[in-house]
Every structure is written in C-alpha cells, then in structure tokens.
Model the fold of this input.
Amino acid sequence: MQRQVCVVWAIIMFLEAGAKAVSIGANGFAAGYAWTQILPLVASAVGVALTLLLVARSKRAARAEGGPEGR
Done:
C-alpha cells in the first residue's frame, strides 16, 4: 500500500507542476501567481482524500481476507 500512496502523491505533484507551467505560460505572471497560491492547497487536499480512500480500501480488503485489520 505504501507504493500506491507514493505513486498517487507523485502523480498529483507532477500534475500540479504541469498545471502551474501551463497557467503561467497561457495567462501571464499575475494569473500564474494566483494559481501558484491555489494549486498546492488543492493538490494537498486531493492527495489526502485519495490517501484516505486507499487506506479504507486496504482495511476492507484485509478484513475480507481475515487478516489483521490494521492499526
């Protein structure tokens, strides 16, 4: 599961960086600056939400297999 979480966060960070680059290139500095203030917060919120979903799914799978339920 740790690998899945790391992959999710890596993809989110790459998407954030790409969105920042596109925003600055297409809209100029002022709009790009505004997006660079917003995108990290959005990316972090999405990352936390997806991490929680992965944890919940992993716990359900462990219970279904009769394994440890996690700590």
